[in-house]
TrEMBL record:
N-terminal signal peptide: 1-16
Alphabetical list of InterPro entries matching this protein: Inosine/uridine_hydrolase_dom, Ribo_hydro-like
Inosine/uridine-preferring nucleoside hydrolase domain location: 26-263
Family: Belongs to the IUNH family.
The protein's name: Inosine/uridine-preferring nucleoside hydrolase domain-containing protein
Length: 325
């Protein structure tokens, strides 16, 4: 005789039935201005899109430099996805960061968008992309500042949807994955550098799951040095890493972890570091994880095993070198 445990029975049944596709659908919000890890994050999203593991619906730039959107366009184009929509925060400026890579990518690498001025505004693009998707199907990946996402949450009904921003997010967005903050407490650049009141607004009003990947994750994942010797010379990802960081040098991988989690979930690479609770953001952008109230909020941590960070770094390097064309 055999005993069929209820859990096994359910699993067997689920395996036997055709399942609706659950491919994650991502919209990435990036500062793509100073740190080159935004480029790695976009590279991963393009790679996973090319492999059919996710769908990259669009990219929104949350810094005002006119070179941000073209830099995104050069990366998307390199990976064979020149038509993925890109929006950029307005008004645009001529600002560049030193050391600069966005201007380099915008001017020396092929792309479709060549000036941030020539892009749609982020909030209308978000609303259009969300309105066109199945309920509860979209993951927003935030690896920069918070203008665009606060604007989405605060938006009002328009021609694409009768829903106000918060209701549209509640209906369409499965979760938002945010690179920002430090856990269980501390300060971090994305939260405290631009406009902490927007981070407060979002963390207090977001109606679906929020997952945070904090300072302490990326600072322990060093990757990208391999690009110098092993990536093709025409790779904008290689160019960005060399321009920002110098040749043959690793960089902390904060932003890529948000794309990895958004694409594959915890996947034995991460665990949740909290048991309940929720984030509290102070006026200066510093954050504290509080035991209550418990919300559908989580922060990533490394599994308790030696070299958990090395596993992720190695995988990231492999992904950054994976050929797509
Ligand atoms: C920005 O750069 C463009 C050329 O790329 C130039 O025409 C324009 O005057 C510059 N604007 C400012 C405010 O410097
Ligand atoms: C939300 O919109 C209102 C009205 O336009 C505006 O006054 C307010 O500053 C906005 N808040 C955020 C966080 O964007
Ligand atoms: C893994 O973490 C250790 C301890 O923080 C660090 O010394 C090492 O450089 C990290 N390795 C990688 C590949 O990121
Ligand atoms: C931010 O504000 C909190 C609360 O007032 C304070 O405890 C913390 O030290 C401040 N952090 C920084 C980096 O100034």
């Amino acid at each position: 005789m055999f005993i069929l445990y209820p859990l096994l029975a359910a699993a067997t049944l689920a395996a036997a039935q055709p399942r609706a596709p659950t491919k994650p659908k991502l919209i990435i919000d990036t500062d793509i201005y100073s740190d080159c890890d935004d480029v790695a994050a976009l590279a991963l999203a393009n790679l996973f899109h090319a492999r059919g593991q996710i769908e990259l619906l669009g990219v929104a730039v949350d810094t005002p430099s006119r070179y941000g959107a073209p830099a995104v366009s050069s990366i998307n184009t390199y990976y064979g996805h020149p038509t993925i929509p890109i929006a950029a925060r307005k008004p645009v400026t001529n600002a560049t960061f030193t050391p600069d890579y966005p201007h380099l990518l915008a001017t020396r690498y092929p792309g479709v968008v060549r000036d941030g001025e020539d892009t749609p505004d982020p909030v209308p693009l978000y609303r259009e992309l969300l309105a066109g998707q199945d309920d509860g199907s979209v993951t927003i990946v935030s690896v920069g500042y918070f203008e665009n996402i606060a604007g989405l949450l605060n938006s009002t009904a328009d021609a694409v949807s009768p829903l106000a921003g918060r209701d549209l997010v509640a209906k369409k967005v499965k979760e938002i994955v945010i690179m920002g903050g430090k856990y269980p407490a501390g300060s971090e650049f994305n939260f405290d550098s631009d406009n902490p009141s927007l981070v407060q607004f979002i963390t207090e009003n977001w109606p679906t799951r929020m997952v945070f990947t904090g300072y302490e994750i990326g600072i322990n994942i060093l990757a990208g040095a391999v690009l110098t010797d092993y990536a093709p010379k025409d790779s904008p990802v290689r160019a960005a890493y060399i321009a920002y960081n110098g040749p043959n040098k690793n960089r902390y991988a904060w932003d890529p972890t948000a794309v990895i989690y958004a694409s594959f979930g915890l996947d034995n690479l991460f665990v949740y570091g909290n048991h309940g609770g929720s984030v509290y953001v102070q006026n200066n952008g510093s954050d504290v994880w509080r035991d209550s109230p418990t919300k559908d909020q989580h922060y990533l941590a490394f599994p308790e095993r030696e070299g958990a960070n090395v596993t992720i770094a190695n995988r990231l390097d492999e992904w950054l070198l994976e050929k797509v064309h």
